[in-house]
């Protein structure tokens, strides 16, 4: 694809080197990270950390911030460029011009087992060895890859993709344009056991699991249904691999969770919350809108909207940084303490 075609498709003709050097229109055959880019590549620069690569990258074209100095450096090296307020978003849009995830054509594989009471929408793709049980409803354009199992009465919305080997349990409602990745279990039984003198009594999990539109669930993640009520994940929320959301949790819209995040039962997470890797949240805890927890944070009490927390147990991030600085000096402080103790 010619660089000019990319610029035109992205609607940035006036914010590119083509306005100054229309003949500098390289053929773009791939996209690459700026530090590994070769001739024929399109890459991007975001922030000061990577600005120096404008002077040494092998890319034929760059997506740059709205920085005239960087643009001039690229022009001096005869690198075509386009710019915008968020180069990373433009790069994501450019990738979509070169790559489309695999999606099979609408068809029903002969090895699929589909209960006659299931309702399938238009243009549905069902892969090999898929099992769709009684009363299931699939919307239009749903894509189900091989070995998926969908339990009775589950509902899957339009254009949702279920990747190979995921399981959708009973009492599950999945919205439109969702993606469930391989190995995920949606609507599995919550961990409900009641202590008795004779041991643990199993409490049946009769509630519902609801994923709103645009939710994406990573590989080998689990979202459990509760004993009563519902577990709900809000619109456009994205979960990484190996995330666990326990029974009765409520997760808001546009929230993101990195790998190995774990939510205990009844946790309430607001909108646009960011949970970094291995964050753990205790039962019934509430996180306000826009809260952020850094990696490995252990949260045992409520977090206010917009607050950033770190550490175990979680404390405000600025306090954590000060405490960590002191922690690094503990050996030195211990030696001082021993000398003072000898002087007493």
Any overview of this molecule?
Helices cover 16% and strands 28% of the residues. The N and C termini lie far apart (79 Å). The model has no long low-confidence stretch (mean pLDDT 95). It folds into two domains: 3-98, Udp-n-acetylmuramoylalanyl-d-glutamate--2,6- Diaminopimelate Ligase, Chain: A, domain 1, CATH 3.40.1390.10; 107-320, 3 Solenoid (UDP N-Acetylglucosamine Acyltransferase, domain 1). It contains five helices and 37 strands. A twelve-stranded mixed sheet has the order 5-8-11-14-17-22-25-28-31-34-36-37. A ten-stranded parallel sheet has the order 6-9-12-15-18-23-26-29-32-35, with no helix packed on it. A hairpin with a 2-residue loop joins β19 and β20. It is flat. The chain is α/β, with parallel strands linked by helices.
Q: Write down the domain tally.
A: 2
**Largest sheet, if any?**
12 strands, mixed
Unreliable runs = none
CATH superfamily of the largest domain: Hexapeptide repeat proteins
CATH topology of the largest domain: UDP N-Acetylglucosamine Acyltransferase, domain 1
- Percent strand equals 25-35%
Record field, number of beta strands = 37
Estimated helix fraction: 10-25%
Please count the helical segments. Answer: 5
CATH architecture of the largest domain, please? 3 Solenoid
Q: What global shape is seen?
A: flat
How do the strands line up in the largest sheet?
5-8-11-14-17-22-25-28-31-34-36-37
CATH class of the largest domain: Mainly Beta
Q: What's the gyration radius in Å?
A: 26 Å
Would you tell me the overall average pLDDT? 95
- End-to-end distance, in Å? 79 Å
Please state the structural category: alpha/beta
